[in-house]
Amino acid sequence: MARHLMNGEFPAFFWGQAYKGVPEVYAAAGAFAVFGSSVTVLKSVTLAFFAGFIAVMFILVEKVAGRWTAVAACLLLIVAPPALVFWSLDASAEYVLTMLLGTIFLLLCLRLEEARRAEGRGLRAELAGLGLVIGLGLWVHTLFVFYLLPAAIIFLLQREWWQRRAFGRVGFGARALAVMAAVYAVLAFVAFVSGGFAFQLGSIAVAVHSPQKMARIAAGLGVLACAAHAMTQVSSESARSYAQRYWPAVAGFLVGYSPVILYSLWVEPARSPARTADLAQLIRAAPDIYGNVIPILAGFKIATTERLDIPLAASAIIVAALLTYLESIRHRLAEFARAHVRTPTLAADFFPLFVVGVPLLFVVSGAYLDTQSYRYLVPYYAGLAVALAAGSLALAKGDKNIASIFVGMILVVFALQQFVWYRKLTPDTESARMIECLKKDGIRGGYADYWTSYKLTFLSNEDIILAPTNGVDRYPAYTEFVRALPDHQRVTKLPDCGASH
User: Fold this and answer.
1) Arithmetic mean of pLDDT over the chain
2) Is residue 251 part of a domain?
């Protein structure tokens, strides 16, 4: 895609789909223009984004939890389980970009909190930046909601009208929308628990089988109900004041989200794949989630579900630190429930909400399809690193020297995981041998397995074009090129190009 961009193609999304934005393609094209196109340059772009994420993550955690926790958390992200190492070097950078943009988003939210406390200070730059980052984040991947939802909850709980429960008189329109939202929420719950239902209402067939779809409709109606109610509570002067204050955020969002808007207007409506999961499906998936997804994220298995030869006892310090952090969250919630006086803040409450909320959102959203769905939890490492660092400090009862020993033990475990994983990796010499073999036989194109076709096409500098025989046909122009080739320049099956060929 980066090479084709240099030839005048400007994609908004990954080839063959109408979602998952590709800013890394534009960055890779720039890197190719300077250094030439290669696997090393391609992966270095992702690594550069990861390095940027570590830098802004350090700034964020230092602001909210202090320098010791920032150092510990960033070390835990650098010396990480193999799953994160893989995605920090993969040519598909959407997960790293989600983490980078999410961290910048939080820094801007903190700046806004500080700016509000400083009387007379303008907010336009911060609001424009915030809108831009939200737009970019939602373009890159819908996983950006992992960052948006906890921040939105904190923002809501900070509002004075919420704390005083001063909601005002609810009008008929807002009340009707709220009732509809409640109905869809109940339908979502029923569909989730029972698997859905269907019945005939006269000539109309009614079916409710997707709890996630019902929940999205309920959320949308709820937002409309709140907007309708707000319109009745705000005077025209206040509305103009809000518009004058927050228009930079809207403008920034439109700029950041413009690839999605333009694609939807000129090509087709942008859309993410609809996912459906009910309670029965999740129960059936539980053995895989607990037996494969969690061990992969923890670093005791690799994505092929192969077990790394590391004793499970090594996870004891990881589990102890995480449980201590979760206990501190439970204690904070209990105090909040008793007192009803503390106002939530991003600094104190974002990461607890993130650590608890992301796994729940992953499960109920239907994001799980199979073992490889673990990749949707890669952004969770940002919160997990903070949880392990803060949990180690809490486990040491605030003694940073002892806490450093705990963090050091976790780093040793992660480093050992990387070492064992690395020893299983072997150089890909077969691809270069295959390309040499095909060129020697005068082959210019052909067909191959999905995972082989695009790899060999890239590695051959597109001197050989291979179209996929299975999976998604990402770039139909390749397939058309192969079809047009004469028989003597095309293969329908890759030959056996052994070392002796």
Assistant:
1) 89
2) no
